[in-house]
Amino acid sequence: MKLINIINSYGEADAVPRFYLKADTALLRNNDAFYIPDLLGRIVAEPHIVLKVGRLAKCISERFAPRLIDAVMGGVTFTAVDRLEELRQAGLPWDEAVGFDHSSALSLESLGRDAMLEGATFIINDEEVTHLGIGDMCFSPDRIISHLSENMTLRIGDLIYLGSPQQFCITKGDNLKLKIGDKLLLNFDIK
């Protein structure tokens, strides 16, 4: 299983979707608490709508991309932003800052493909802080799937984190929630 993270879904448009990969050990499941890793510095959270791939695909056109989506889920990724900046300045890979264990929360429950059209709401400490709308993205989910399949074979169970419009600093004691439509998919604490 691959965890694929789109990094330019919101904001200024680029020619194509840009992405990076994470190992499956980055998954944080079951609404388990996220423990801020020692020695990584400041950590930010980014909410995502996550697509679960349900078919094998290579070089698929946008027209057929909807057939690949098995489920829609909620996700939150965590990034060590100070470490990321150090790595970028040194021209080194980002893995240490973005791919550490449990750096990608994923909901247990999943919804049908059409649920993503409702968008997602990210809540920190019971305050709604942002809304992720598919219509606000630079690339449609179908364009993202098509582009990814041109670069690598997509396999059953691969997870595509569609990107986030914003980062949020987190601290111990925070509670994070993510809803798609009116369905609460994630509810976990930061420790």
Care to describe what's here?
The protein is globular and about 45 Å long. 36% of the residues are buried. It has helices at 81-89, 95-98, 141-151, and strands spanning 3-6, 19-22, 27-28, 43-53, 69-80, 104-106, 120-124, 127-132, 159-161, 168-169, 175-180, 183-189. The chain has 191 residues and is mostly beta strands.
Average pLDDT, all residues: 96
General form: globular
What structural class do the secondary elements suggest? mainly beta
Say how many strands there are: 12
Task: Estimate what percentage of residues fall within beta strands.
Answer: 25-35%
Instruction: Catalogue the unreliable spans.
Output: none
What summary fits the major beta sheet? 8 strands, mixed
Q: Mind telling me the C-alpha Rg? A: 16 Å
Helix content: 10-25%
Q: H/E order of the elements?
A: EEEEEHHEEEHEEEE
**Termini gap:** 27 Å
Individual helix count: 3
Which key phrases capture this entry?
191 residues, mainly beta, 8-stranded mixed β-sheet, 3 helices, 13% helix, globular
